[in-house]
C-alpha cells in the first residue's frame, strides 16, 4: 500500500473510488464524474492525498484551505487560516484497514505546515466516520436533519392534462389553477422536533465538526 500525493493522472481512479465508497452511504446526492478544480477565489491551497494498491486508487482525501478573507468570515470556524474537509473516501474492499487514518495523518502534517488553525468537517450520520472525526479532535458545533419527503400541510393538488395546450395542468381542491406541483423535495430541518411536520421517505442527520489545531 502506498500513501502519496494526488497526481493529475489519478483522476479516473479518484472518481471510481469515491463513487464506490459513497454508493451506499448517507451521501446519496454526492455524485461526481470528475474531480472538481480548486475555486481560486475562495481557497488558496488544496491538500490532496491518495492510497494506491497495485496501481489502483483505493482511498482519497482532499482538504481545501480558505484564503485569508474567507477564513476569517467562515461561520463555523473563523480563524486566520481555516480549512474545509472536502472529500474522504475508501474503496469498499479496503475499508476497516486504517486507510482513512493513514491519509489523515499525512494531511494533518501538511495542514500544520500550511499554518491552518481550524479544520471544518461536514458529514452525515454514521458511527464509523463520526468516531474518526471525534478521534481526530473534532468538536461538534452544529447539527441538522436532511429530509426527503413533503410537509404534511402541503395543499392537496389535482393532477391533470390540458390537451388543448398540450401541457400538464394542476389545480387545488377549489379548482384554482396552480403553477407547479411539489411531488417530493429535500428539506433542511434545524430541530429534530420539526420532523413531525413531514411525511418522511428518508431522513439523514447532518453534522459539522471543527478541529482546532491551536488546541491540540
TrEMBL record:
InterPro entries tied to this protein: Acyl_CoA_acyltransferase (IPR016181), Bact_Acetyltransf (IPR050832), GNAT_dom (IPR000182)
Keywords: Acyltransferase, Transferase
One Pfam family here: Acetyltransf_1
Cross-referenced CDD domains: NAT_SF
Positions of the N-acetyltransferase domain: 1-164
PANTHER family: AMINOALKYLPHOSPHONATE N-ACETYLTRANSFERASE-RELATED-RELATED
Protein name in UniProt: GNAT family N-acetyltransferase
Amino acid at each position: 500500500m502506498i500513501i502519496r500525493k494526488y497526481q493529475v493522472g489519478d483522476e479516473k481512479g479518484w472518481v471510481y473510488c469515491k463513487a464506490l465508497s459513497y454508493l451506499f452511504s448517507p451521501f446519496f446526492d454526492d455524485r461526481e464524474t470528475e474531480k472538481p478544480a480548486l475555486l481560486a477565489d475562495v481557497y488558496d491551497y488544496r491538500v490532496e492525498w491518495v492510497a494506491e494498491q497495485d496501481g489502483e486508487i483505493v482511498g482519497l482525501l482532499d482538504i481545501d484551505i480558505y484564503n485569508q478573507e474567507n477564513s476569517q468570515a467562515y461561520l463555523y470556524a473563523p480563524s486566520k487560516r481555516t480549512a474545509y474537509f472536502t472529500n474522504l473516501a475508501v474503496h469498499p474492499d479496503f475499508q476497516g484497514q486504517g486507510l482513512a487514518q493513514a491519509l489523515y495523518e499525512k494531511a494533518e502534517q501538511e495542514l500544520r505546515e500550511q499554518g491552518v488553525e481550524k479544520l471544518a468537517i461536514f458529514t452525515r450520520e454514521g458511527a464509523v466516520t463520526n468516531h474518526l472525526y471525534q478521534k481526530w479532535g473534532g468538536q461538534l458545533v452544529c447539527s441538522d436533519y436532511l429530509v426527503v419527503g413533503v410537509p404534511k400541510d402541503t395543499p392537496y393538488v389535482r393532477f391533470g392534462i390540458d390537451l388543448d395546450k398540450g401541457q400538464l395542468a394542476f389545480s387545488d381542491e377549489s379548482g384554482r389553477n396552480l403553477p407547479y406541483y411539489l411531488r417530493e423535495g429535500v428539506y433542511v430541518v434545524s430541530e429534530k422536533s420539526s420532523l413531525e411536520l413531514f411525511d418522511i421517505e428518508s431522513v439523514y442527520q447532518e453534522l459539522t465538526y471543527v478541529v482546532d489545531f491551536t488546541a491540540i
